[in-house]
UniProtKB/TrEMBL annotation:
It comes from the Bacteria. The lineage of its organism: Bacteria, Bacillati, Actinomycetota, Actinomycetes, Streptosporangiales. Belongs to the bacterial solute-binding protein SsuA/TauA family. It holds the Pfam family NMT1_2. InterPro entries: ABC_SsuA_sub-bd. GO terms for molecular function: ATPase-coupled transmembrane transporter activity. Residues 1-23 form the signal peptide. This is NitT/TauT family transport system substrate-binding protein. GO terms for cellular component: membrane; periplasmic space. Keywords: Signal. NCBIfam families: SsuA_fam.
Length: 326
């Protein structure tokens, strides 16, 4: 039922997924860099950065590429079709396990409730998923959350019927009553919870620190054009400062990109904890990120999602957040 982590097959998928990507110049070979992001509250500030000109202010020319499919963004970075992407730590480890050379240069946020396992009426606990059908995007972050929740409840992956679907399709299938539960992240949680009586029976809030989200760049971009990476990281913190001073306008921009109402977007606030510069400096210097990476790698092996521990050498690069503060 559960095969290896998605990223182990990313290189095989290159031809299929690469066809949908743009042919913009990349960071290692031209002036512009292509930065990918997808539907997650902690990544929508990139839309603000683009609309308010913060990339140009920091001397970087960026093609900001929005992916309707999060999986496609992971594949695009792993196969070199983009230079940088916002993605979770566990999905980055998946790509590294599959042979991709990637580096984490920034912590965007920690998921503190916006990743959820949502069940139909009558199911009020993870233990009650035994024998039920649960949908999620295979090998990505909410599949990981589902496995964490099952283990905590004393269930094995084989105790459920897992239905692999892209996140948007999984939310729609659950709303239509085609599955008993679903693992989704905001804003797709809003779709799933439109099923009358549906409730979240487990969230990322139950697993503190398990789902950190990052700006991840190709190893070659960090090595060959560090000034570009520095500009991206500086842009992020400039954007957060602007958002803090212009909350209403920022929310309008981010809700528009998310395709939800401003009130719905406001409801996501508690479920995503944005990391400040001080938070970033602490995360990189304290060893907490490396500790999380080791724990996630071990869990992926124990759960049958990976064969070997992903190599951590070169995975974390603190110099860019340190460069902002210097």
């Amino acid at each position: 039922m559960i095969r290896r982590l998605l990223a182990a097959a990313l290189l095989v998928l290159c031809a299929a997924c690469g066809g949908g990507q743009s042919a913009a110049p990349t960071g290692s070979g031209g002036k512009a860099v292509t930065l990918g992001f997808s539907a997650w509250p902690g990544w929508f500030p990139w839309q603000v950065a683009q609309e308010k000109g913060f990339f140009a202010k920091n001397g970087v020319t960026v093609e900001l590429k929005y992916f309707d499919s999060y999986t496609d963004s992971l594949t695009a970075l792993a196969t070199g079709n983009i230079d940088a992407n916002s993605q979770t730590l566990n999905d980055t480890l998946a790509s590294v396990s599959g042979g991709a050379r990637q580096t984490v240069v920034l912590v965007n946020d920690n998921s503190t409730g916006n990743d959820q396992i949502i069940a139909k009426p009558g199911i009020t606990s993870v233990a009650q998923l035994k024998g039920k059908t649960v949908a999620a995007e295979q090998g990505t972050v909410d599949h990981y959350l589902l496995l964490l929740a099952l283990r905590k409840a004393g269930l094995k992956p084989s105790d459920i019927t897992f239905k692999p679907l892209p996140t948007d399709a999984a939310a729609a299938a659950f709303k239509a009553g085609q599955v008993d539960a679903v693992g989704v992240f905001a804003p797709f949680t809003t779709t799933a919870l439109e099923l009358p009586g549906a409730t979240a029976i487990a969230t990322s809030k139950d697993f503190p620190g398990a789902i950190p989200d990052h700006l991840v760049v190709s190893r070659s971009l960090a090595a060959d054009r560090p000034e570009v990476v520095q500009g991206l990281v500086k842009t992020w913190f400039d954007t957060l400062t602007w958002i803090g001073a212009n909350k209403a306008e920022a929310r309008t921009i981010m809700a528009g990109r998310a395709g939800v109402s401003e009130q719905a977007y406001a409801d996501y606030d508690a479920g995503t904890t944005i990391f400040s510069l001080a938070d970033n400096l602490e995360a990189f210097s304290s060893g907490s990120l490396e500790k999380q990476a080791k724990e996630i790698g071990a869990f992926l092996i124990q759960s049958g999602l990976a064969d070997t521990s992903p190599p951590l050498d070169g995975l974390l690069d603190a110099r860019f957040v340190q460069g902002v503060s210097s």
